[in-house]
Design goal:
The protein has helices spanning about 5-25, 45-60, 75-80, 95-105, 110-115, 140-150, 165-175, 190-195, 205-215, 265-280, 280-290, 300-320; strands spanning about 30-35, 65, 90-95, 115-125, 130, 155-160, 180-185, 200-205, 220-225, 250-260, 290-295. With about 325 residues, it is an alpha/beta fold. It has two domains: about 30-125 and about 250-320, D-Maltodextrin-Binding Protein, domain 2 (3-Layer(aba) Sandwich), CATH 3.40.190; about 130-240, 3-Layer(aba) Sandwich (D-Maltodextrin-Binding Protein, domain 2), CATH 3.40.190.10. The strands form two sheets. The protein has a six-stranded mixed beta sheet with strand order 2-1-3-10-4-11, with helices on both faces. It has a five-stranded mixed beta sheet with strand order 7-6-8-5-9. The protein starts with a helix and ends in a 5-residue tail after the last helix.
């Protein structure tokens, strides 16, 4: 082979990795789109816009946030899944659309395991099991015994059918062998108020929604559903340490992108968002809202989501919950 021809081939071979590196270094070259799967004012909205503002400075490009909140977040999550796979669209979704929706809807327009790429798990929040202040129980074990002695005669409130609030109690019912009737409400405020009024006897909901009525002594907290104690309520035992090892039922949220998004974009977003989550101002705002910051690798988030789907599929099947 002539020297000039051989030199041309060697130059081309050497140029390929350089071109790949150049593309990686060149991302992002234009504004990014962040889809938020919950309405304005929600924790997803507030957190997403906070991260978007910080990302703008770190990436050198605007990050335009867009709310797509219909159908319990599945519309927005579907929009993420069906977006261009060029690294310029990603979004913030949560437990329902990413883990439980496949078992709650008979027809879901996306498959979270197939159509989405994990970026980073942002945070988790436990539910708190609380009871009406006049219920004659003071500990979690007393609650279990009290419900067992009155099968079908007590009610519990949830913030909605298929919600984390609902499924956490259904998981407890299955593990503890309890028969307590589910009364779904449209959101936390009416569910919490109904429990405080004694219309229902118990509730599982996020700490933020319960705290004012706990402080007013109209609700009595008994346990948290996280695997370890919740930092903001350290005196409250976990269900896991109260006789049900391994019990865990937390709400969570995280950033995802369309499957097939370039790896360099996923890795850069993961790195920058992790740094944002650990910054003092962002971390304190997340914790003040009742969440615990997680972060970590994209692979760890993917494994976590798969574990959550395995956890909730049998619970949902047993409960008969449907959202169609």
């Amino acid at each position: 082979m002539p020297l000039t021809k051989r030199r041309q081939l060697l130059m081309l071979a050497g140029a390929a990795p350089l071109a790949t590196a150049a593309r990686a270094q060149g991302w992002p070259a234009r504004p990014l789109r962040m889809i938020l799967t919950a309405p304005p004012g929600s924790s997803i909205d507030v957190l997403g816009r906070l991260v978007a503002e910080k990302l703008k400075d770190r990436l050198g490009q605007p990050v335009v946030a867009e709310n797509r909140a219909q159908a319990g977040g599945t519309v927005g999550t579907d929009a993420i899944a069906k977006a261009e796979r060029d690294g310029y669209t990603f979004g913030l979704s949560f437990t329902g659309p990413l883990a439980t929706a496949p078992f709650l809807y008979s027809k879901l327009p996306y498959d979270p395991a197939r159509d989405l790429a994990p970026i980073v798990l942002v945070g988790t929040a436990p539910n708190v099991l609380a009871v009406h202040a006049d219920l004659p129980v003071n500990t979690f074990r007393e609650f279990v015994d009290y419900v067992r002695a009155r099968p079908g005669r007590l009610n519990y409130a949830s913030v909605g059918n298929g919600s984390s609030s609902h499924l956490a109690m259904e998981l407890l019912k299955a593990q503890a062998g309890l028969f307590i009737v589910h009364i779904p409400f449209n959101g936390a405020p009416p569910a919490v108020q109904a429990t405080a009024a004694g219309d229902v006897q118990a509730i599982m909901s996020n700490p933020t929604s319960l705290l004012p009525l706990i402080q007013a002594r109209r609700l009595r907290p008994l346990a948290v559903t996280s695997r370890t104690r919740f930092a903001a309520m350290k005196d409250l035992p976990t269900i896991a340490e109260s006789g049900y090892p391994g019990f865990e039922a937390v709400a969570w949220n995280g950033f995802v992108a369309p499957a097939g998004t370039p790896r360099e974009a996923i890795e850069r977003l993961n790195r920058e968002i992790n740094a944002i989550l650990q910054s003092a101002d962002v971390k304190s705002r997340i914790e003040a809202a009742g969440w615990e910051v997680v972060g970590g690798t994209a692979e760890a988030f993917g494994a976590f989501m798969e574990e959550e789907r395995r956890r909730w599929q049998p619970v949902i099947k047993r409960s008969g919950a449907k959202l169609d």
